Amino acid sequence: MSAQNLKYNAYSLQDISVAASQRLTSNILYNQLAEKTINIQSDSIRDGWSLLDVKYTNKIIAVNGWLISDTAANLKTLIDTFKGSLRPNDKNLDIETYGGSGVYTRWKATVRNIQIPEEHWQISQKPFSVEFLCKPFATATSTTTINLNSGGNITTTPYNEDITISGSYNPKPVITITVVAETDLTAIKFENTVTQDWIQVARSFTAAEVLVIDCDAETVKVDGVAVDFTGIFPEFNPSTNSIKITSTDSGAFQITCSIVYYLTYL
User: Fold this and answer.
1) How many CB atoms lie within 10 A of CB 30?
2) CA–CA gap between residue 12 and residue 9 (Å, rounded)
3) What's residue 120's pLDDT?
């Protein structure tokens, strides 16, 4: 079975293809839950407390292994390259799901510690350990797209459809609504009735305009220009979500809607 690969900012920590610069990772500790901040309120009279709020804050991923070269001089070069390649901040840490799968899970990470212990007998190889400070959630490395109404035109209001979000935590998708045709379309409201979140843009829409609601960047734009909105950016559960789109138009209209997201994992 192939060794499990991992890459930081596209630099592999599992590569033995060149004798002078081998990086051999032996352990990757990453399956634990991200750290939580738990806010409580103590009862002022009786024993006990009430839970106020819980937030995931960060995750520590620890990696250790060996740096192996063919000469002492090349080992020094390898160590310098290794530390230099891990120096950039807030980059992608991609970990293969298992050895040989070719499928990766991605964290946004920054290296907070590198240890390369010195032992006099280690002439052409040295152990290493690296700690990555990561954002609490991982994602897939490519997006998943859900096209409402199977990609066809939506011509009724309100339009309702249940969708299934995969993963193990709430993603922050990009919602794209394209106006194919309209009579006097003056408002579009997008709602997730499961989470009871909704967002609405009230303006005069014209055919071919594209409304983009980016729940991660928290922006709302029509044809690339920011517009006013009411409501909040809707949350999506990693399960079934009930979508409701309300279009305000006195006559016939046609719109399409897609939801693009990264599978998100605890």
Assistant:
1) 18
2) 8
3) 64
**189 and 111 both lie in a single domain:** no
Contact between 104 and 94 under an 8 Å Cβ cutoff? The reply is yes
- Return the CATH number at 38: 2.40.30.200
CA distance 249 to 184: 5
Say if residue 153 is in the same domain as residue 68: no
Question: pTM value?
Answer: 0.87
Instruction: Flag whether 51 is in a domain.
Output: yes
The pLDDT tens digits for 86-102 are 999 999 999 999 999 99
Q: Which among 44, 11, 30 is positioned nearest to 97, based on CA atoms?
A: 30
Any idea what DSSP says for residue 149?
G
CB of 178 closer than 8 Å to CB of 266: no
* Alpha-carbon distances of 104 from 4, 14, 95, 133, 140, rounded to whole Å: 10, 14, 5, 18, 7
Taking only the tens place, the pLDDT of each residue in 135-157 is 999 999 999 999 999 999 999 99
d(CA 143, CA 203): 30
Question: Looking at residue 52, what is its pLDDT?
Answer: 87
Residue 85 token pair: 């390649």
Residues 22 and 50 placed together within one structural domain of the fold: yes
Which residue has tokens 């152990």?
Answer: 127
Domain that holds residue 95: 6-140
Q: Which amino acid is at 197?
A: D
C-beta separation of 104 from 96 below 8 A: yes
- Asked if 213 and 190 touch (Cβ cutoff 8 Å), the reply is yes
